[in-house]
Write a structure and sequence with these properties.
It is built from seven helices and no strands. With about 170 residues, the protein is mainly alpha-helical. The protein has one domain.
Length: about 170
Amino acid sequence: CSSPQVNTYQQGGGYQMLGNIITMGLAFLPFLYRLFRTDNLEQLCSISLKELLHIFCGAPASIPVLLLSGINFLERLCLTWMFFFMMCVAERTYKQRFLFAKLFSHITSARKARKYEIPHFRLKKVENIKIWLSLRSYLKRRGPQRSVDVVVSSIFLLALSIAFICCAQV
């Protein structure tokens, strides 16, 4: 049942683009918060580099403060990107899993098998039932089902680590 429909199914990139935009927004969120909390919002265009670094760091700019702020920024950027990337992988895998299940359920219907160009099994003979059962067990072992569990549990652990880091930063 590893038909061309499953292997050549084109995934949309909308969720990944949205995840990248949200990642950039979350990485710059503390900087933007401090920027818009400054007293001189009307003089935003004429801010000097030293003042901009002070706003970025949240403290007077020195080498250790700049280094720590840069590390915090990269940490937020990388962790949120990994989180949204793994969410996209899980969503794609769930879609592929659903397509496998849908096509597998169509394998015993002559009309649906012809429509989706997959092999058709009539479950009238014992041999065909055995083939159908062995195909089902093969798909359970080899299909995308096993990787979904790993990805979802990794996303959960990553979300916990991001929440822990955010709480520590607050």
